[in-house]
Write a structure and sequence with these properties.
heterotrimer, A alpha/beta (661), B alpha/beta (150), C mainly alpha (130), A: 5-stranded parallel sheet, 18 helices, 28% helix, B: Rossmann fold, 4 strands, globular
Chain lengths: 661, 150, 130
């Protein structure tokens, strides 16, 4: 049996004016378990708290009920006071007789009656309280960043600068991501490589950063502070530690028919290749599907010419297992496939290109050496048409329902750069809306239209027809209310972006939730935008939603701060009000596992001695470090095995009973 | 013991989630927005913590109405809890309707921590409905009532 | 008068099943329309006119009968608005109204237009036979 003390606060006149304190104090004396009941003007004051502490000692109380203001206000205060008197801090219940009673009722009898009910409800709950101890777990002082684009690099650099070890896992042979493919960046027009490559070098040379390129995450287990991750290091067929990156092998390689991924397939590369000149690490990879040695067994020219003897055809995939305290997801994006958009003739004509392809064509290190040439006949174009919202804001299922956010700005950038470099080219932009919320963004777009004479047409393109080496673009001009036909040399499609395909499998591995578009969801859309609902998993860059580079970098740094905050702790103290399963009652149905938003529930095979026989049963186990205590699992449990500490079924039932008496 | 009461004083149990609706109720209090005293609030971590058994228990013990308030859809502190609550309660309420407990005696509503006005409006409105409906005579376990009454 | 148009617009929306509010005014229907050169009112304006209850103007327009029902606009619309279904509904509404039938059998020979594909004619007959 509990020995409960009830303390009724006057809150000056805030409570005492409408609630008859004496009635409450006297009524509580008759409640089961109550051995002490008293009142004071200000319970939260030091004098009030010392009364509570003294009463706990004097009456040997096992729990206290404070009838006062909202628990959101002073629950912590009274818990501290109870703890100071040697009581478990979770043996404190608050009856909210100020906000929920005294302040909203005028009638004194009515308010006093309600205050009594609220107080006895708290007593009824407290009668069933059990002391709770917050669990602790260790933190592995190492972070994993998945994805080596600008988001991953920035997160890794910030974490490394704070003094923690970081591993970057990148599936491509080099870090740099999509930003490395860009030519110039809006709205300042500084070249992407000039600002990105120093960061790549910094990441590679940082003592605390370890690059694991050409690798993918195979599996993840564990929880916040203690993830175990298996990383598959794909076979490069080149010994990275002795390769000097001289590039002779790539020159001599006789198989030169593979499409260059880095240049969006606009030119070819050799079977052994370095994606681009500033690649980090500057170590080639053998594309085994293209390599003659792997296909026919005869060749091996690269091995013969390699001065460092670094080629190793027998290399196998390697699995690295490592422990991490936190994981940053920075898996980025890719442009969508245009199979559902036949009207733009993307597949039918080489001169219809995506914006990312145009980035490569405009780039000095690109397939045309920076000269703007039509891909089909390598001739100078005279009329160019840009189409915005290709696949964005499409609710029919052909494209994506969301706005891809970056297209308006990069289209303005492309149009401006082309008009600046080649004033003879007529540039037309078909748009639905031009969205430029960002610092200096609208000025930039207006500059393209006003100073550079880019022709912006409000309307969409309905058809692009390749005709006699030209492209007949049929669109609408809504402001003039007519259909327009433009004879263009090139058409550039501002293709929607979507999360990288690795996001989905990673979400499953990490139980980090994703939305219907496969973007990772944040723990709170406004207040916790860089955290995943799964503790210890953080979000960086476009994998959370479309973003431009400054936003990506800002989010990457924000995620890094969250990681540093986590890694700086030696122990994680968890909220003890978490779910727990009664293994004897659990029937192994997995319902709780399915509803848990945090992936905190695992099923284990366990031996039980039932009627003298040993039986193996599958039972739920809650990981208390991961559980956040929402209680969704308790309701779906058909056998009543799952319960929530601090808010048990019995406690809430007792509260219901106390109210309905 | 007479079951007939001279004046009908309903009993309403409100389950409020800790993060939104309980805070909304606090704000209603701070803003002195009155709602009837027959409404008694039970704090739960999330609307999804409300087991249909609790609702049944309340009716069994003589409650005249039960309301569950949670964060607005999409704003749940635990991401998806209020969606679970909404689905569960839709099913429970239609079953209760089948039992003869009027649909208006039960309600799920969304009140954010900033909506003190909405909290009091919802509670006033709900209480008005219960007053119109009168005492709930279904599901009440009279044995419980007698033993508990002192 | 306005009320009548409003009722008509509601009927048109109901029988076509088109939610005109879904339109985000991108003009892809107009950009796609193969019969646009024959029209006095562009397809994107059909949608906004029904949305704004401007039914009288729409019904007296020739464009209504120039639509081929080729469904290119339905196919291409990124929001699934289905302008062709809307036009079909306007035509049906016009036909159902007494003395407002635009296509009498005896007038067909004079209306024949070599520039328009046969589909338009077939489509028109389909409208008439309803």
């Amino acid at each position: 049996m509990q020995r409960i003390g009830v303390f009724v606060c006057w809150c000056g006149t805030n409570i005492a004016a409408t609630v008859d304190i004496d009635t409450v104090v006297e009524a509580m004396k008759r409640e089961p378990g109550v051995v002490h009941s008293s009142d004071y003007q200000y319970m939260c004051s030091e004098a009030g708290q010392s009364r509570i502490r003294n009463a706990i000692k004097e009456h040997n109380l096992t729990g206290i009920v404070v009838c006062a203001c909202s628990p959101r206000m002073h629950e912590t205060t009274f818990r501290k006071a109870a703890k100071a008197a040697g009581l478990n801090e979770f043996m404190v219940e608050i009856a909210n007789i100020r906000e929920h009673c005294a302040w909203i009722h005028k009638d004194r009898t009515e308010a006093t009656e309600k205050a009594v009910v609220l107080a006895r409800t708290a007593v009824a709950k407290l009668n069933l309280n059990k002391p709770l101890t917050p669990g602790t777990s260790d933190v592995v002082k190492r972070a994993l960043v998945i994805g080596g684009g600008i988001a991953g690099i920035q997160s890794a650099l910030d974490i490394a600068e704070a003094g923690y070890q970081v591993d970057i896992v990148e599936k491509e042979p080099t870090i740099g991501g999509k930003m490395a493919q860009l030519d110039k960046t809006f709205p300042t027009l500084d070249c992407a490589a000039c600002i990105l490559t120093p960061k790549m070098v910094e990441a590679a040379q940082h003592d605390n950063i370890n690059l694991i390129t050409y690798s993918e995450v195979d599996s993840v287990s564990g929880f916040v502070g203690n993830f175990t991750v298996k990383i598959r290091k794909k076979a490069r067929s080149v010994k990275a530690d002795i390769c000097s990156g001289c590039g002779i092998c790539t020159e001599k390689c006789p198989s030169k028919k593979a499409k260059s991924e880095f240049n969006m397939g606009l030119n070819n590369r050799s079977a052994i290749y370095i994606p681009f000149a500033q690649a980090i690490p500057n170590v080639p990879v053998i594309d085994r599907d293209q390599c003659i040695k792997f296909k026919t067994g005869k060749c091996g020219l690269c091995a013969k010419v390699c001065p460092a003897d670094a080629i190793d055809f027998s290399q196998q995939d390697e699995i690295i297992e490592q422990k991490y305290g936190a994981v940053v997801l920075a898996t980025g994006f890719k442009p969508i496939k245009l199979d559902n958009f036949d009207e733009y003739s993307y597949a039918a004509s080489q001169d219809v290109i995506t914006s990312l392809e145009l980035e490569r064509i405009m780039n000095a290190a690109g397939p045309t050496g920076g000269k703007l040439l039509r891909p089909s006949d390598k001739k100078h174009p005279h009329t160019m048409v840009f189409v915005q919202c290709v696949g964005s804001r499409d609710t029919t299922g052909c494209g994506k329902t969301y706005c891809s956010k970056i297209c308006c700005m990069y289209t303005a950038k492309h149009a401006m750069l082309i008009r600046e470099k080649y004033p003879d080219i007529d540039v037309h932009v078909f748009y639905i809306d031009v969205r430029t919320p960002g610092k200096n963004f609208d000025e930039f777009y207006r500059r393209a239209a006003e100073d550079y004479g880019v022709n912006y047409i409000k309307g969409m393109v309905g058809k692009v027809a390749p005709t006699n080496g030209k492209l007949m673009v049929q669109g609408s001009d809504l402001i003039a209310d007519r259909q327009v036909i433009i004879e263009a040399d090139m058409v550039v499609l501002a293709t929607a972006i979507e999360p990288d395909q690795t996001a989905k499998s990673l979400a499953t591995m990490l139980t980090a939730s994703i939305d219907t578009n496969n973007f990772f969801t944040e723990a709170h859309p406004k207040l916790r935008p860089v955290e995943s609902p799964t503790a210890g998993v953080f979000l960086s860059g476009v994998c959370q939603g479309p973003k431009d580079i400054p936003e990506t970098v800002a989010q990457a740094s924000a995620a890094a701060v969250k990681v540093v905050g986590l890694l700086s702790k030696d122990k994680l103290v968890s909220n003890p009000c978490v779910a727990g399963s009664n293994e004897l009652l659990c029937n192994g149905c997995s319902n709780c596992q399915h509803v848990c938003p945090y992936g905190a529930i695992d099923y284990v095979e366990k031996e039980f001695r039932i009627n003298g026989k040993i039986k193996i049963r599958r039972v739920a186990q809650v990981n208390e470090a991961v559980c956040q205590g929402c209680g969704a699992c308790t309701v779906v449990c058909p056998s009543g095995a799952m319960d929530l500490k601090g808010f048990t079924n019995q406690q809430i039932m007792a509260e219901v009973d106390a109210i309905c008496r | 013991m007479s079951i007939e009461k001279k004046e009908f004083k309903p009993l309403i149990v409100a389950f409020c989630c800790n993060w939104c609706s309980y805070a909304g109720a606090d704000l209603a209090g701070t803003s002195r927005l009155a709602y009837p005293a027959e409404i008694k609030i039970i704090r739960v971590p999330c609307s999804c913590r409300v087991n249909p058994m609790f609702v049944l228990r309340a009716f069994q013990r003589g409650a005249d109405g039960v309301i569950i308030a949670g964060c607005h859809p999409g704003d749940c502190h635990y991401t998806s809890g209020n969606y679970f609550a909404r689905r569960r309660m839709t099913m429970l309420f239609s079953m209760l309707d089948f039992f003869g407990i009027e649909r208006e005696r039960t309600r799920v509503d969304w009140v954010s921590a900033a909506e003190g006005v909405k909290f009091s409006t919802v509670m006033n409105d709900f209480s008005k409905k219960i007053h119109e409906l009168g005492e709930n005579r279904r599901l009440g376990d009279l044995r419980c009532k007698q033993t508990i009454d002192r | 008068m306005l009320q009548k148009q409003q009722l008509q617009a509601e009927t048109i929306r109901r029988i076509s099943g088109v939610n005109t509010r879904k339109c985000m005014k991108c003009g892809k229907c107009t950009a796609t329309c193969p019969a646009h050169s024959e029209m006095d009112i562009s397809p994107h304006r059909f949608v906004s006119m029904v949305e704004n209850n401007e039914i009288d103007a729409l019904m007296s327009s020739d464009s209504l009968w120039k639509c081929l029902s080729c469904f290119a606009c339905v196919e291409r619309c990124p929001r699934g608005v289905e302008p062709a279904n809307l036009i079909e509904a306007v035509r049906v509404t016009a036909v159902r109204m007494q003395n407002r039938n635009r296509l009498l059998p005896e007038n067909i020979p004079s209306l024949l237009n070599n520039k328009l594909p046969q589909q338009a004619l077939v489509s028109a007959f389909r409208k008439y036979s309803k």
